[in-house]
UniProtKB/TrEMBL annotation:
Keywords: Membrane, Transmembrane, Transmembrane helix. The chain crosses the membrane at residues 12-30. The keyword Membrane applies. The lineage of its organism: Bacteria, Candidatus Yanofskyibacteriota. This is EfeO-type cupredoxin-like domain-containing protein. It comes from the Bacteria.
Length: 144
């Protein structure tokens, strides 16, 4: 007896076309009330939202600033709080003889339990240190 090979020529193509039509109809049906699928504009990146300025506290104690590095946004403030028994003076790092952040330096010494607050108005990376011991330092990264 000879074997008969089954060769469905038109049936396979009909099935493929039927599946594609069903897929197209389902996309049309489910995208009726979805602007993301009907050619509406897709959001790119993060939505812009209004943000209230914040105040962050950097503590000084045991000869170290904590946190040492902090990220904030333009308009935010840093409150430096001296939790040690000695006075400190916070100053901006300098390039040559010019401070990296003019106007940042604390006015005089900050006594024990005293505070110094500064509001950042420009984007950048700013280093600071204790003028009485330059090895005691930190960095503030200001984002838009």
């Amino acid at each position: 007896m000879s074997e008969v090979e089954f060769q469905p020529k038109g049936a396979i193509w009909f099935l493929i076309i039927l599946v594609l039509v069903a897929f197209a109809l389902s996309v049309i049906y489910f995208s009726r009330n979805n602007p993301d699928l009907t050619g509406g504009t897709l959001p790119i990146g993060r939505p812009i939202t209004s943000r209230q300025p914040r105040v962050y506290t950097v503590f000084y104690g045991l000869k170290v600033f904590s946190p040492t590095n902090i990220r904030i946004h333009v308009g935010d403030s840093i409150r430096f709080q001296n939790d040690s028994k000695v006075t400190i003076r916070i100053v901006s790092d300098s390039t040559g003889a010019v401070p990296d952040l003019p106007g940042f330096d604390s006015i005089g010494d900050i006594q024990s339990e005293g505070v110094f607050t500064y509001t950042f108005s420009s984007v950048g990376t700013f280093g600071y240190h204790n003028a009485k011991n330059p090895e005691e330092s930190g960095t503030i990264i200001v984002r838009p």
